[in-house]
Design brief:
The complex is a heterotrimer of chains A (271), B (264) and C (324). Chain B is mainly α and 264 residues long. Chain B has helices at 3-26, 28-49, 64-94, 96-101, 107-135, 143-172, 175-179, 182-190, 205-211, 213-226, 231-262. In chain B, helix 3 (64-94) runs parallel beside helix 6 and helix 5 (107-135) packs across helix 6 (143-172). Chain C has helices at 43-50, 72-78, 94-104, 109-122, 138-149, 168-183, 195-201, 219-226, 240-247, 272-281, 296-304; strands at 4-12, 18-27, 32-36, 58-63, 66-67, 79-82, 156-160, 187-192, 204-209, 212-217, 230-235, 251-257, 260-265, 286-292. Classes of the chains: A mainly alpha (271), B mainly alpha (264), C alpha/beta (324).
């Protein structure tokens, strides 16, 4: 009886790449339920970056009067920041949702299954990466309507790629914290982390127009490279590889670093 | 309304107020929006937009930070109102408010208790940002008197915003609904002179900011820090607070009646 | 090879709380083993260690032949788990949940669909299968939880308090299902705070208190250990002396209680008819007669000095009489 049952288990279940891909897809689909099945729940998160974009443009728009500002359209200058913020919020929300799932015991169900920890993580962060495109789409639509310069096909593609990268990185950050603190009380830390990282760059003004401590921090903040790379299409003369590769490298590095932390915490859930 | 009745209700207000303050300090997701976020935003915006003092139309100030403190305080009080509303909605969802309604205390005392807590948080926010300002080189032109006026105005506006929050919580009864209003707080802030002098804001936001009661409150607070206290500014600020207070009281009464009548 | 084996299993938490203080147990294949104990005894912590959700801080354990620490992935492939919280996603339908579970176990789509239909039918949820779990009652959620634990035909099934909070009808339904699974060869490890559940279902019962197993055996043997059944004969006060004389022929008389004469039956329940006849022959008028069997609670009291259900500390008389 034992051998027969054991064999049945083994034959039924598979440990292949195809099976893992199916697991990732199933987890992405489940995460999508939050948007699709709870009407209105996603709206604040999707609209928030656009609200900030409009607000910051209206309030600080006259900063373009300062000498040395590369454009006289503040909305074009700030849109990369808002795009990254949208991805940051989405990623942080992934962490908050995971914390909720841990608190309510749903996550145990995933942990007790034979799905490898890396597969579980991939499902979570890839869903964030894809969902980041939603606030980005809303923001770009409104931005273009308000006169943001068209960044060209290359510029747009670069922007969306960096948005997805940011969503992934932010999700890894959120997941790391969720697995460490195991409570939704850590939500402010998840959101604040990304918020601070994105805004302590050349977000509000070019580097030489920043004042005080922020100028020093922005100079060394790796995310400044990402902001500047994205800004090329919207503000500059077009894409130049010399301005683009640092941003791509930083984003890849951020995803790798935060992903490593997230995976480590995923593997240590039983401790 | 006997003295005993008043005393009993004042005790209730004090106890509920103390509870809501303790709740806020014990839960990071309630405290962070009140102190942490506005401080971060203050630091970042001061560094990021600080060059604006060089713009020809920027009002004469000692430093950019000086002019930003008022906005940070008011942002904090708005978020305190939002946090309080979320906590109140959680109380309603969990049935804690029903327990209070069933007790022999005035229904308004229950709401006032929450507002008392928000009032205290307003004081905390004002003191916090005054301290931050002083540490990082700002100066309070209005002196000690000015500082006290700042604290008073900020605390009163906290209570007024808290009242709006309580009305929303009573009507909605669910924390998730109240939480969704968080971005709205920033919309209102952006459409005021909280973050930047009104004369430098782009249209059409500028027109809205000129008439936004929030702008009057911010200017009233700002006067005491950046300039010297002015009676006109103070009157306008108090008027705006009174207006918001009146609206929030009416809405709260309506929402309270609705909840007590329908249980939902 | 035992289906579950634990040796000196320990778990201490970071604040020096010792939840499990050295548990040894062995569950053979095809058995139903019940872990009985009050809240806080360490049941859930033990289950979490055996299902690889928690790392032991001491000792070792093997499930389905695999070590829970070094071969955790293999353990997960072989076990099905239904946890105390019945953690289900309220936004998913019952069918979607089972199919997700199937996917997580690497089961192919067509097979997953087939299994879902089969299991939903088995637990009586076919009609509700395409409704969101958020609309299900407590009993329905537990049945769905059980069904999803079975999707990959596990060798060992872990059930953590499977019927806590359920009404009697739902409870019986779960018991029937568990028995049926066991008849089909699945080893079942369940934790419970209900005596009747352990008594009815289990082949072996382990009684846990304060992180340690204080007794372990079949329900019958455990109860026999703490005493034999006793008879309570309610009879008029003035006839007590004669009644006591009569019953003394059949076993050890016990202190009377509430106007009843008590006797521990030396040869068990089979003596009852004989005792009744003897009392009748003596011309005595019996008002009522009660045969009281020892319960697992009596076992618990004997081992720990506390009651299991209700959690009261023993203060005075109990119904359990220590074996002579």
């Amino acid at each position: 009886m034992e051998a027969a049952t054991a064999t049945a288990s083994r034959e039924l279940t598979r440990d292949t790449l195809g099976a893992h891909a199916a697991m990732v897809w199933a987890l992405i689909a489940r995460a999508g339920n939050e948007i699709v099945r709870v009407p209105g729940a996603a709206i604040p998160g999707v609209l928030a970056p656009t609200i900030f974009f409009l607000g910051l443009t209206a309030v600080f728009g006259n900063l373009t009067e300062l000498s040395g500002f590369p454009t006289d359209e503040y909305q074009s200058f700030i849109i990369p920041v808002s795009l990254l913020q949208g991805a940051g919020f989405t990623g942080a929300a992934t962490g908050v949702n995971l914390a909720r799932d841990i608190e309510q015991g749903w996550f145990d169900r995933l942990l007790v299954s034979p799905a490898p920890r890396s597969v579980l993580l991939s499902g979570l962060v890839l869903s964030a990466s894809l969902r980041s495109l939603v606030p980005a789409a809303v923001l770009l639509t409104i931005g273009f309507a308000l006169g943001v310069d068209w960044p060209g096909a290359g510029g747009l593609l670069l922007a969306l790629l960096l948005v997805m990268g940011m969503g992934t990185a932010a999700a890894c950050w959120g997941v790391t914290l969720a697995l460490y603190f195991k409570t939704q009380g850590a939500a402010p830390l998840m959101q604040a982390g990304m918020f601070v990282l994105i805004l302590t760059t050349t977000a509000y003004a070019p580097l030489d127009r920043l004042t005080g401590w922020l100028q020093d921090v922005a100079e060394y903040n790796p995310l400044t490279q990402v902001v500047d790379a994205m800004r090329q299409g919207f503000v500059g003369e077009g894409l130049a590889w010399s301005e683009t590769w640092p941003g791509l490298l930083v984003m890849a590095g951020l995803v790798a670093l935060l992903g490593a932390f997230a995976l480590r915490n995923m593997r240590r859930t039983s401790y | 309304m006997t003295p005993a009745f008043l005393r009993a209700n004042l005790n209730v207000i004090g106890a509920l107020g103390a509870r809501s303050v303790k709740q806020t300090f014990r839960r990071p997701q309630l405290l962070a929006p009140i102190l942490v976020f506005p401080t971060l935003l203050l630091a970042i915006q001061t560094g990021g937009a600080g060059s604006a003092v060089n713009l020809p139309e920027f009002p004469a100030v000692n430093g950019f930070l000086d002019s930003m403190l008022a906005g940070a305080m008011i942002q904090s009080t708005l978020l305190a109102g939002n946090s309080g509303a979320i906590a109140f909605a959680v109380d309603i969802e969990m049935g804690f408010t029903d327990r209070l309604f069933a007790a022999p205390i005035s229904r308004f005392a229950i709401v006032l208790g929450r507002l008392a807590g928000t009032f205290v948080l307003g004081i905390v926010a004002a003191v916090w940002f005054l301290a931050i300002g002083l540490i990082f080189g700002a100066s309070i032109e209005g002196g000690v008197g000015g500082a006290l006026l700042v604290i008073g105005l900020v605390a009163l506006s906290a209570a007024a915003f808290g009242g709006l929050g309580a009305a929303i919580a009573l009507r909605a009864g669910r924390a998730s609904v109240v939480q969704g209003l968080f971005p709205l707080v920033f919309v209102i802030l952006f459409l005021s002179s909280a973050f930047f002098p009104a004369n430098l804001i782009l249209e059409p936001a500028r027109s809205v900011a000129d008439y936004n009661p929030l702008s009057f409150i911010v200017e009233g607070v700002r006067d005491n820090i950046v300039f010297s206290p002015s009676l006109e500014g103070l009157a306008e600020a108090l008027g705006a607070i009174a207006l918001i207070g009146a609206i929030s009281i009416s809405l709260t009464v309506l929402a309270l009646r609705h909840r007590l009548r329908t249980g939902g | 090879m035992p289906a579950i084996e634990a040796k000196s299993l320990e778990r201490t938490f970071s604040d020096d709380v010792v939840a499990v203080a050295g548990v040894d147990l062995e569950v053979n294949e095809g058995q139903i083993y019940a872990f009985l104990g009050p809240n806080g005894a360490g049941k859930t912590t033990t289950v979490r260690m055996l299902t690889t959700l928690l790392r032991p801080t001491g000792g070792s354990a093997r499930v389905a032949g695999f070590d829970v620490i070094d071969e955790a992935a293999d353990v997960r492939r072989a076990i099905g788990v239904a946890l105390q919280e019945a953690a289900l996603d309220p936004l998913m339908t019952g069918r979607e949940l089972i199919r997700l579970q199937a996917t997580l176990h690497g089961i192919s789509r067509p097979e997953g669909r087939r299994r879902a239909d089969e299991l939903l039918d088995r637990v009586g949820l076919t009609r509700a299968a395409d409704r969101r779990v958020g609309t299900y009652s407590g009993g329905m959620r537990r049945r769905l939880d059980l069904a999803s634990a079975l999707v990959h035909e596990p060798i060992v099934l872990f059930l953590d308090e499977p019927t806590t909070g359920l009404d009697p009808v739902s409870r019986k339904a779960i018991w029937q299902e568990v028995s049926k699974l066991n008849d089909e060869g699945t080893t079942v490890f369940l934790t419970t705070q209900y005596l009747e559940e352990a008594d009815q279902l289990a082949d072996n019962v382990g009684i846990i208190s304060a992180g340690r197993i204080v007794a372990e055996d079949t329900p019958a043997r455990l109860k026999a250990e703490v005493g034999r059944p006793h008879l309570e004969v309610k009879i008029a006060e003035d006839e007590h002396a004669l009644a006591t004389e009569v019953v003394a022929r059949f076993g050890q008389p016990l202190p009377s209680k509430d106007g009843a004469v008590l006797v521990e039956l030396a040869r068990g329940a089979s003596e009852v008819a004989t005792v009744v006849r003897a009392l009748d022959d003596a011309g005595l008028c019996v008002e009522s007669l009660d045969l009281v069997e020892p319960t697992l609670d009596d076992v618990f009291v004997a081992k720990t000095g506390q009651h299991l259900e209700g959690g009261e500390t023993e203060t005075g008389e109990t119904e359990a009489i220590p074996a002579p």
